Amino acid sequence: MYEEGSTIYWIIISSFVMPLFLSALMIWLVLAYQKKKHQAENAAKDAQLREQALIIEKQNALENERNRISAEMHDDLGSGLTRIRYLSDKALVHASETEKEEITKISAYANDLVRNMGEIIWAMNSRFDNAESLAAYIRRYASEYLEAYQIPFVFKDNTSQPSISLSGEKRRVLFLIIKELLHNAIKHANCKAIRIEIYSQPQTKIVFTEVGAKGFDPLKIKTQGNGLFNMSKRISGIHGTLNHERIENDMVSTIVW
After folding, report:
1. How many CB atoms lie within 10 A of CB 46?
2. Which of 60, 102, 145, 229 could serve as a FRET partner for 192 with CA atoms 20 to 30 Å apart?
């Protein structure tokens, strides 16, 4: 119908070939874009995995260093302080009355240092970075502390499984708050008993109850001395809260973190 080589012939051929060419070009562009997108996504995932691996590596290195330092403190400082305490007790046998007073002070200082160092070692060791360890440590300390004052003590561990992770910093802050509450209860509250309850559900919290205590006005907390101020400052440092309230004849302090 149309002579080969004529203008109309080439127009007709082009009308068939051009769409095919454009379609092929479009398909190639789409495939090339998807390939580059896939490569970019893989590169991003690889970079994220490398970053996560680096973070884990740093965390492991930090935990190993914490454990190493706590072990060295236990082995070196602990044994040295225990030796001082032993020698002090031995020296008391042959000391004069004046010397006994000074040696007794040395022994008491050594005992305090051993106890404080034990708290630091416990906080530094990553093996104890969980709620169960915190509960066990608080129970042991509170039981020994209150036994010396013959104050009845009730402890309820309501932490659930699996174990809730707690950093050394958080464990130490929470323990120091409990330690301060115990000190205040003995010094100021004139309470009949102490009850400590630890919960992990629906939120992680510690409820410290001074049974039959005379208590204080929570609204005047800022004027009650450095102890309460320091507790509030400590808990805010780990983004938690500490509230005090009078419930019937009891004074209740609730720590939430």
Report:
1. 10
2. 229
